[in-house]
Design brief:
The complex is a heterodimer of chains A (about 260) and B (about 160). Chain A is of the alpha+beta class and about 260 residues long. Chain A is about 25% helix and about 20% strand. Chain A has a domain of about 170 residues: Alpha-Beta Plaits (2-Layer Sandwich), CATH 3.30.70. Chain A has eight helices and 13 strands. With about 160 residues, chain B is mainly alpha-helical. In chain B, about 40% of the residues lie in helices and about 5% in strands. The termini of chain B are far apart. The chains are: A alpha+beta (about 260), B mainly alpha (about 160). Chains A and B meet through helix 2, helix 3, strand 6, strand 7 and helix 6 of A and helix 2, strand 2, helix 3 and helix 6 of B.
């Protein structure tokens, strides 16, 4: 037979016991943390590339390599310029010799393995240049796959790599649909375009933007409605690369063509 | 219950304790979940500041203007006014302290980056005067005849 006193005691014990572990066991709630991502940050860096203006001089690639201490001779680059030549019979040629570091100074399109293709002027349907750089995705797949937390998204939207913590497993290199990541030949860890984080955080522009004489590359803050880049992205016809991957890339292109992958 | 039954449990507990202690020393300070949540924001916070503190090597033409305003003035109404100084003169770095002298790229290849003719009407290249590098005074540096700062003026060399 249970007494009233015992019943009350045990009820309180069970209630207390139930409520305590519920709070204590809640180590983390990813959904809640993601919701908190809807943020107070006032800056979200984005990039705007105007392919109409690009002439394929490659000054951006050279400046990027020197600014970010990538050996000019190394066959890796944080940014590059691609040339697309579409012929009248529907063939598409694309190349980026040395990432476009020395510009495009002749009409020999590299096919790889030392082979070149020349397309006569009258056979060209359209030809143009497309600069590429890290898209600083809103949903960066490269960050999701990092097993050690060496790569991450900053509150202002740029994806960085912690050089002291990267183990060089290369998962992120495989995960990036845009092929933006590579191994740095000297630091021996993964490297990538970070919108020249040291420059944009200190009131400067990216090295590639400063090197471009034609205004083909521009950086902006999408959270500032008065930003000229934001205005263009909001009001004009811009495209992004590989939208179907759901990565929400934040490099916007004016004059994108369906041939560009 | 006999102690040999408990022994594996102690072993496992000991291993867990060892891992936790080792973790204290190995995991750097400030490592954890930051603003972007578990999926994108799991990192060492101090790394952001490390990236921010890297010095810029390209200082832009505004920096050059501080001492070389006269040179900038010669380009003011030039077709080449939009080209940043450092594209040909190289990154300023901490010039004039380090490097004391910049190495100017006067090569033909530099000019050809824009001025080699390519029949690409859809690109910006179509708006620039282009030459055939093999026909147009092959092997001679462009600056021998052309003024790089202001192409409409006489060459200075």
């Amino acid at each position: 037979m249970i007494t009233r006193r015992d019943f009350c005691k045990k009820t309180m014990l069970v209630a207390g016991g139930l409520s305590l572990p519920l709070a204590a066991l809640e180590i983390f709630d990813p959904k809640k943390l993601l919701a908190e991502k809807a943020d107070k940050a006032r800056v979200r860096w984005v990039f705007l590339v105007d392919t109409h203006k690009c002439v394929g001089c490659g000054f951006c690639v050279k400046a990027c390599k020197l600014e970010n201490e990538l050996p000019l001779e190394a066959n890796v680059a944080r940014t590059w310029v691609e040339r697309y030549v579409v012929t009248r019979d529907g063939r598409i040629y694309a190349d980026t010799p040395n990432a476009g570091r020395d510009g495009f100074t002749n009409d020999k399109i590299a096919l790889g393995l030392g082979k070149y293709q020349q397309v006569k002027k009258e056979n060209i349907e359209k030809a143009f240049f497309v600069p590429k750089l890290c898209n600083q995705c809103e949903n960066p797949p490269c960050v999701q796959v990092c097993p050690v937390g060496a790569t991450y998204q900053t509150p202002d939207g740029v994806v960085l790599v912690d050089r002291s913590w990267c183990i060089g497993c290369g998962y992120c290199v495989m995960a990036c649909p845009y092929g933006m990541r590579f191994f740095h030949p000297q630091y021996r860890v993964v490297d990538k375009c970070n919108f020249c984080y040291h420059r944009i955080s200190n009131g400067m522009k990216t090295a590639c933007m400063d090197a471009c004489p034609f205004g083909a590359r521009r950086i902006g803050n999408i959270k500032d409605p008065g930003d000229p880049v934001t205005k263009i992205i909001m009001r004009e016809r811009v495209g992004v690369l590989k939208d179907e991957y759901g990565t929400k890339p934040q490099v916007y292109y004016l004059g994108l063509s369906k041939e560009v992958k | 219950m006999k102690s040999h039954v408990w022994r594996p449990l102690y072993l496992v507990l000991g291993l867990i304790a060892l891992v936790l202690i080792a973790r204290l020393f190995i995991v750097p300070k400030g490592f954890g979940v930051n603003e972007q949540g578990y999926m994108y924001g799991f990192y060492r916070k101090a790394n952001e500041a490390e990236w921010k503190s890297l010095g810029a090597k390209y200082k832009t033409s505004e920096y050059c203007k501080n001492c070389h305003a006269d040179k900038i003035a010669t380009r003011k109404d030039s077709l080449h006014a939009a080209i940043p100084c450092e594209n040909c003169h190289g990154p300023a770095g901490n010039h004039p302290d380090n490097p004391p002298k910049l190495e100017i790229d006067r090569s033909r290849e530099l000019c050809l980056r824009c001025h080699a003719y390519l029949p690409y009407a859809a690109s910006g290249r179509a708006t620039i005067t282009g030459i055939n590098p093999e026909m147009h005074n092959a092997g001679i540096e462009c600056v021998n005849c052309h003024n790089a700062h202001n192409p409409k003026r006489e060459a200075t060399r």
